[in-house]
Amino acid sequence: KEKLTDKKNFEKSEKLSQTEWQNETYSWSKNVREILKSSFNIEKLRSMQLQTINATLSKHDLIYVAPTGAGKSLTYQLPALVDKGITLVVSPLISLMEDQLHSLKKRGIPAKMLSANSTKEETKIIHTILEDPLFSTSDQMKLLYVTPERMSKSKRFMQALQKCYHNAKLDRIAIDEIHSVSVLGHDFRPDYKFLGNMKTLFPNTPILGVTATASRKVLIDIQKILNIRGCIIFNSPFNRPNLYYHVIDKPSENEACYDKIADLLSNRYEGKSGIIYTFSIKDTETLTNELLKRDIKVRPYHAQLDAAERSKYYHQWMENKIQAVVATIAFGLGIDKQDVRFVIHHTMSKSMENFYQESGRCGRDGKYAESILMYRMADMFKISCMTFVESDGLKNAYSMINYAINSKKCRRDQFAKHFTEVWNDKNCGKMCDCCFHKKDVRVVKPPEIDIVEHYRSLLKILDKAKSTDTKLTALKLLDAWFQKGTKSARVDNMPPPNIDRFYGEQILVYLIINDYLREDFHYTAYSTNSYIVQGPKVPTDNDIEFNPSRVYELPPLQKLKSYFEDFNETKTPRRKSLNNDHYQFPQNKRETSNHSRDYS
Ligand code: ADP
Ligand code: MG
Ligand code: ZN
Predict the structure, then answer these.
(1) Which of 21, 73, 246, 561 supports an S-S bond with 54, CB 3.0-4.6 Å?
(2) Which residues have CB under 8 Å from 387's CB, separation 6+?
(3) Is the distance from the beta carbon of residue 72 to the nearest atom of ligand 1 less than 6 Å?
């Protein structure tokens, strides 16, 4: 019953009209325009920013969902300058807060931050300002950034905040990455739970939550946990029309894989700035070294580098002194580089949400950019062994894997389907590998394979393994199926399948992520292993249908040129090609070019 009410309330939030908040006739409207120009040097608000600003200044609780780079920070930074008191910003990462503080300082906006690293004196000053009954001192601190840990662990701080509230100086509580409140999401952080107390402690202070990823289910959960059921929800469309999505085959030989990436960076992406995401710190280090050996200018970025090094590499990248950062997901939140032209995933992400966010870090300037996912079967098990302990971990991983192997369906449609509850956009405009190659007669159409027989064969092999008390990894299973590897694992008189091993892998993966087979995880002293066993779906003869996908070659840039001129003009001097102005959208050729900039 409670669930039903939550849902009803949510539907109410959805109905709160977005146009209603769009006008500029509020008492603060003139002020907003002026501050936008004078403090932020911005001419025009983007899609949904005005609505969000108006609603939070009207003291409504609200959640604003918009893609990375959409400009969510402005929706609490600007109102902080309109109101007389203080805006509290809860943010998950110190580096993220430092970035924001840095840019606020440059603009002359008084902001402070409180973290485990704050000195005693600094902490005291902040408490004093919070507790000061007069408004005059809030000029020294319009925004205060804190981590959720700080809030949940420091009684002293909460006491100061309560005084601030009782002096009517706590204007709003902004919560960045608000999806972290919910265990249903992909990125739950226990300390965010504490934020559930805010509405009780500070009933008159509006909450403004922002996030780049939250499904309907997660949004309902956030409303419930924060006690803001039925609050306003604004969505900016998630589609990034200027991003070209592509999956490529990841060579199984490491050397070949490094060569492939080096080739991409020195040819296709010559003179262009990018990010390469890897699975682990070790991969980051190895890949960096291998690319350096191949004369590609890259630097690593991960949590184990010391802060000075990280900051140095980050700035070298920002200034285009290096071509790409090879990074773990530690490189992410708060990056603000507009002209990133490519993101390569050396290993897939652990969820579609993560992948969407990471790949979304390119093309923020609205111009053509590419997301390349390198896929091979072995990576699937790296991801599943890491995530299976998380709630929904496997489910999330399997959605990601499905994206990787499903090259029959428009990548955008796959995103849309995955995020269906908050975003629906079918118009791809040939900006993904599947759509691009759809009518390309030179591309060999993948065969349609009846996999029932194959499934039976695999089950037989698994039966035999079970009877001999042997555990089979996916690789061993595949080997046995193709009559390779350990003899004892093979089934006598079973001929190898009459298909390419490439399809064999895809069939196996397909059967796993669709519950025909199942991964069975076992810990060893050093690692977790995934073994394949029979899945929960009963084997029947008729209900398995499989359209194997073929991973397409990257299309020639000249072809894409008809959509996005100039992308291939890298033959001009290097310096110049690093310049933003070099990647222009063709004027009015495609409707996306008009509104890609404001995400509307
Ligand atoms: P998000 O948090 O949504 O990922 P940010 O708040 O970090 O995005 O903003 C990304 C960049 O966009 C920042 O450089 C910011 O200054 C810029 N920005 C925000 N709003 C606008 C706007 N209306 N016009 C131009 N630039 C903007
Ligand atoms: Mg942000
Ligand atoms: Zn498409």
Answers:
(1) 21
(2) 350, 351, 393, 394, 396, 397
(3) yes
